[in-house]
Amino acid sequence: MASQNGFAKFSTANGYERLEDFLDNATVGIHLVDKEGIILYANKAELKMLGYSSDEYIGHNITEFHAQQFTIDSIFSKLLRNEQLNNHEATLRCKDGSIKDVVINSNVYFEKNKFKHTRCFTRDITNNKRVENLLRFLNKAGEELTATHNTQEAIDKIIKLIVPNFADWFIMNELRDDGFAHLVKMAHVDPEKVLWAEKYRRTHPIDFNDPVVGSLGWVMRTGEPLLVADTTDEIT
After folding, report:
1. Is 197:171 a contact under the CB 8 Å cutoff?
2. Res. 5: pLDDT tops 80
3. Cis before 225? omega within 30
4. Are 169 and 163 in contact (CB under 8 A)?
């Protein structure tokens, strides 16, 4: 008899029930996958980390949730050879579309030399990765800034570090004495979008009286920095 989370439960064996309770309430993500990649079980921590319900995750192929196909291919290749994974880095796709950086520890349970299922333990290292990347960026930016005395050249080097490592867009405007915002630099992972944005800026100049909080006019008028997670046409 299967429980709602997909883990086998035997009502006549209290030991199995206690084991299920132990696994389901562990603080680290745990999941089992069969030889075909179908998720047989996932505990609460795993589901919470990625934002899925049990029905949205259990019974699906694990490849649906890996952001990089070559990573899951490598994982399965090693497990099929009965190799143990230790702190194997991967990226998983959450329900909201965001990506989690994780490390996976896993091995395979074989029964009579037949692959029954994996035993996978998943730990979220997204914040650690962000800090590492930020420190790497700051160190590199410092090196670039001290290596040149040309302001424009320094800006160009910093932009290359930011796009696409930290952002898709980079736009720098300068408020000058004439009261107008002048475009200093613009970059995008897709160069064609830069041409579109430059044309758009010529026909849609920045309105310094724009009341929309987070708009370019509002930021430049108030001098208040603002991080906007989701941009809208009004803010743009």
Report:
1. yes
2. no
3. no
4. yes
Of residues 2 and 208, more confidently modeled: 208
| Residue-wise burial string across 43-66, b where 16 or more C-beta atoms lie within 10 A, e elsewhere | bbbbbebbebebeebbeeebeebb
- Of 116 and 154, which is predicted with more confidence? 116
Q: What confidence score (pLDDT) does residue 2 get? A: 46
Q: Diameter of the chain by CA atoms?
A: 83
The pTM for the full model equals 0.62
Q: What is the pLDDT of residues 18-38, one digit of tens each?
A: 888 888 889 999 999 999 999
Place of tokens 């965001």: 98
Measured CA distances, 68 to 101, 211, 229 (Å) = 11, 42, 24
Residue with tokens 């439960």: 9
Q: Indicate the Cα dihedral angle 54, 36, 2, 52, nearest 10°.
A: 0
pLDDT of residue 195: 84
How far apart CA 177 and CA 151 sit, in angstroms, is 19
All structural domains of the chain, each given as residue ranges with its CATH number in brackets, are 14-124 (3.30.450.20), 129-205 (no CATH)
Angle between helices 126-147 and 151-162 (to 10 degrees): 160
> Residue 182 gets which letter from DSSP?
E
How confident is residue 121, by pLDDT bands cut at 50, 70 and 90?
A: very high
